[in-house]
Amino acid sequence: MPFVLYVCPNFTSNAVRFIDTLSSLPDVRLGLVAQESVVLLPPEIQMRLAAFRQVTDVFNADVLTTAGEALQRENGPIHRILAAVEGLQVPLALTRARLGVEGMDAETAQNFRDKQRMKDLFRKAGLPCARSKEVQSLKEATRFADEVGFPLVVKPPAGAGSLSTFQVGDPAELAAALDQIPEASALLEEFVVGAEHSFDTYSLNGKPVFHSLSHYYPNPLEAMREPWIQWQVLLPREVLAPAYDDIRDAAFKALDCLGMHTGISHMEWFRRPDGSLAISEVAARPPGAQFTTLMSRAFDFDAIGAWARLMIFNAFEPQQQKYAVGAAYLRGQGKGRVLAVHGLETVQREIGPLITDFKIPSIGQEAAGNYEGEGFIILRHPETEVVRQALSRVVDIVRVWLG
Fold this sequence. Notes:
By secondary structure, this protein is α+β, with helices and mostly antiparallel strands. The chain contains 14 helices and 19 strands.
């Protein structure tokens, strides 16, 4: 029975979902490495763990290697080392190499983690992407702005999930954004005008075996700039339609040039007003923001369990899409903690049969401070337009008040 390590910094609700799934596999012994104490996990999950190590810094490859060596001595050879957090992919790759564990190597992990390196590979492969440059000073940034023009996007070279990402419209905003980047360098990109989407792929032995795509309403950067916006994600039923042939082709070529072998990837891309494409970036890890739930509901399977079996046993069963799904993210209005949630009764009465999953903000809950907000409602129906209209109805009705 293979001994598998899962690594996470903290026991967030998403991390617990992954640990629960992995520890429930009947033919796997799961070891866990984390920065928090195992007693914070539900007792039923603790009982299923084969081993645990609490460490000071899971993002440090030396710390992970030391923990892995100790766990190998106690439990036998490690079959796989896995994580769902983007910032862990390079440390994990280094640890795998040191311990002789199969999986993505450090060079490939860097292709996905270093966004400028990624775009250089895209351009070399002839793939459409935004013009970009990694800069280490305001002088370099100003020179790039003079070449490309405003607006620009400023982000960390190894950022994820729109964290520390800014849209800037003039030299003053550019300087202010650079001051907020937590790293010594920053990545500048031309601001792509168009509709933003995602493209999620399961790959096995270098070949895509499953893919899904989503529409964002609106783009996450716009949602970040306007705190009143309730973000929506729609996964249409027509994923295999000819209208998506171009992004399908570009996405698979992108994964090939980055070196994806076996794993799951989350790509963000744009459809410009003229119909052309621009790939934003790709992450070599499971998507966040409830996307695994959306895929699970659309294809009627367990997306996390499928990822686990793919990574551990190199196995994937073909899936057929049955539904369109969507998520409306419940974002608090104001500042502080949740004071009240209005409109739920109306939503339940009007579209209750479409709801598959939900997280309702709790009174007293602290504001998340991002476009995902404090909760969500997920909807499903065989017809895409029914889901699209229902999502709009949710964000029109439900209000989360902060104070």
